[in-house]
Amino acid sequence: MKKFGLIGYPLTHSFSEKYFTEKFKKEGLEEEFSYEAFPMPNLSELPELIKRNPDLCGLNVTVPHKIGVMYYLDKIDPAAKEIDAVNCIKIVNSHPVEAFFSGELSSLQVRLEGYNTDAYGFEMSLKPLLKNHHPKALILGAGGAARAVAYVLNKLGISFKSVSRRSIKKQLSYEQITPDMIKERLLIINTTPVGTYPNITQAPEIPYDALTSKHILYDLVYNPEETEFLKRGREHGAITKNGLEMLHIQAEKAWEIWNS
Length: 260
Ligand SMILES: NC(=O)c1ccc[n+]([C@@H]2O[C@H](COP(=O)([O-])OP(=O)(O)OC[C@H]3O[C@@H](n4cnc5c(N)ncnc54)[C@H](OP(=O)(O)O)[C@@H]3O)[C@@H](O)[C@H]2O)c1
Fold this sequence. Notes:
Layout: E1 2-8, H1 15-26, E2 33-39, H2 46-52, E3 56-61, E4 75-76, H3 78-83, E5 88-94, H4 97-102, E6 109-115, H5 117-126, E7 136-140, H6 144-156, E8 159-163, H7 179-184, E9 187-190, E10 216-219, H8 228-235, E11 239-241, H9 244-258
Parallel strand pairs: 1-2, 1-3, 4-6, 7-8, 7-9, 9-10, 10-11
Antiparallel strand pairs: 3-5, 5-6
Helix pairs in contact: 5-6, 5-9
The site of NADP nicotinamide-adenine-dinucleotide phosphate (NAP) has 24 residues, from helix 5, helix 6 and helix 9.
């Protein structure tokens, strides 16, 4: 049996575990594959986890380990390197030729490859919504997911400004966002957890009255299905999208990487 899993901490409601367990059931793959959540407060436990689970072929990586995990990898995909975050690991067992001939399987070698499937999921789910009047964007938040979003916008030639509560580098503060800025930037992406269940009445502090029907409001949050941010966008006629499709696409991309 091939095993897959998730590392992060804490792992309370794991989307990935539910998604892959249901996928294996639905596709009749339960005999061949399994998926398990491995709560890991400290990344130094990773080598031991891999040693204890020789049938482990791939891992999803979530908060707070997307950056730190790169230290443990043998190869990092160029996109993940540029984003500076890994959320998918492929575990490759390679048997050196000598070990094969001598039958010494104890010298089995394990190679860890890192990828970022968040960026792919975001790109594929955003692209169908884009029109010529979306050359400028605003990214709300400056964490790991914001870096994957920024990577995709750069790739698509969309210029953007980032908004953060901390005044670092060239980022704007929420107080600096004017109605004119909103009118100029017709793509607004929330990469903060603001509005996530149970805090469903909260929304990022931007001048919502400046929104129009030409705007796209994209929220990486998917619980609730319509966040307060998206609701306010919809009320001004904007096109809205939550993070659920991105989540599904990134999971399927991980599956493709593990099986390639
Ligand atoms: N749909 C998907 O597939 C998908 C994929 C990845 C992540 N996500 C979601 O995206 C969100 C961010 O994930 P992440 O990994 O980037 O987390 P993260 O690294 O912790 O970054 C979140 C950022 O949000 C900002 N933030 C946090 N609390 C805030 C508040 N109360 N008010 C305003 N800003 C706040 C912070 O930026 P500043 O301190 O700079 O303001 C922080 O850097 C999470 O809700 C996660 O579930 C969804």
